Amino acid sequence: MFKQVLPALILAAASASVRAGDEPVQHLRNFLAHAHTLQAEFSQVLVDGKGGTDKRSNGVFYLERPGKFRWDYQKPYHQEIVSSGGKVWFYDVDLEQVTAKRLNAAIGSTPALLLSGEVPLETNFSIEKQALDEGLYWIKLVPKAEDSGFKYVLLGLEGDKLAGMELSDNFGQLTRIYFDKVKTGLKLDPALFEFKPPAGVDVFEEK
Hints:
It contains three helices and twelve strands. It has helices at residues 23-34, 113-116, 121-124; strands at residues 37-47, 53-64, 68-75, 79-84, 87-92, 97-102, 125-129, 137-143, 150-158, 161-169, 174-184, 202-205. It has a twelve-stranded mixed beta sheet. The protein is globular.
């Protein structure tokens, strides 16, 4: 486990396998009840299958539930990931390339889908309470579908504040996201959650 800070996810109710009195789930519910919008700075670390740090990046994350999110990667490259129009758009500014994926096909590419309210967690994931670690309450989401694209997602909460995320894919790579300066309850500009491919870029769109 690792100390980290993360924004929101969605959980309207715990799955039947999780007891109503389980403390981590209750902290998550409390957070979601008050976090309809969220803005945070983030740093992301990719860890390869041998435990070595592969890539680091950082930027700003925006969330408006239900269904809207935006990742703006600023360093070392500029990339935008936006949920818009029932799809998730991946815009690599340096490569001048846009890829659009259907929501249900994009979960393995961006864990923000688990935060947006578009994916019913109780239907698609087994929800497992983990031990208290480094002062954080942990919840593990294990996909029920074998073709999900990833093994699990760990979410950590510090009190009623979402405070950690780790995604493990099927190739042994971990994505760890650390958040800072988390703010909730803000009025966010609707334009943040709109995306139109810029003129002249290559667009690859899944039908």
